[in-house]
Write a structure and sequence with these properties.
The chain has six helices and twelve strands. It is an alpha+beta fold and 204 residues long. The strands form three sheets. An eight-stranded mixed sheet has the order 3-2-1-9-10-6-5-4. Helix 3 packs across helix 6. It is globular and about 40 Å long.
Length: 204
């Protein structure tokens, strides 16, 4: 994949009530791991210092987990999630959505987005992030809900909690991210290629 295929947005600012994208005010739909902007149809991953972040109200405090002060049983898993480069997780999402769409069980991924100057109410300052443009599933025809067998048949390893199967839109898989998120099976080479294109687009 060439970096020319990555759309670069110079500045994104996120507040609880709205976002600005290159100076344009947008509505927001918040998720635990990403925010969806319905107007431009962009899903942008949450990030702190270029690393994946989660704003779920039951998530542990980032600094406590990464500092080794959180003693909960799944602290190691949270540390892994919070240490994942956001460009990599976006690349994993891109590969998965491409497979889902090809199998007829997910939205069309219409383009990759990289953000040079990203700041949110939780980001602890400026950084980078990335995301992808996805077709609007609310405009897709209703279909029978996707099964786990169909998901696996498309080359996707489901998330541990199976939220990707429970939280479908009109029968299509729409959310792949959680603490033990879905992953593309045998997708390392594809993911690395997309991650590298995102990094090059940001001059990294």
């Amino acid at each position: 994949m060439d970096e020319e295929r990555v759309e670069v947005i110079d500045k994104v600012r996120l507040w609880p009530s709205h976002a600005t994208v290159a100076g344009r005010v947008c509505r927001v739909k918040w998720g635990a791991w990403a925010v969806y902007l319905p107007g431009p149809q962009v899903k942008i991953m949450h990030a702190v210092s270029g690393l994946q972040h989660c704003i779920y109200h039951k998530a542990p405090r980032r600094e406590e987990v990464l500092g080794g002060f959180d003693r909960r049983g799944d602290a190691e898993n949270w540390a892994r999630a919070f240490s994942t480069p956001v460009l990599r997780r976006v690349a994993e999402n891109w590969v998965m959505f491409a497979r889902l769409h090809a199998a007829g069980i997910g939205p069309e991924p219409m383009g990759l987005v990289a953000v040079r100057d990203y700041r949110s109410f939780f980001s602890r300052g400026r950084g980078i992030t990335a995301g992808l443009r996805l077709a609007d599933l609310t405009k897709y025809p209703e279909k029978t809900p996707t099964t786990e067998a169909e998901l696996r048949g498309a080359g996707i390893l489901p998330d541990r909690s199976r939220a990707s199967l429970r939280e479908q839109i009109r029968g299509y898989v729409s959310d792949l991210n959680n603490l033990h998120g879905a992953m593309p099976e045998d997708g390392e080479a594809e993911v690395a290629q997309v991650e590298a294109a995102l990094a090059r687009a940001l001059g990294r």
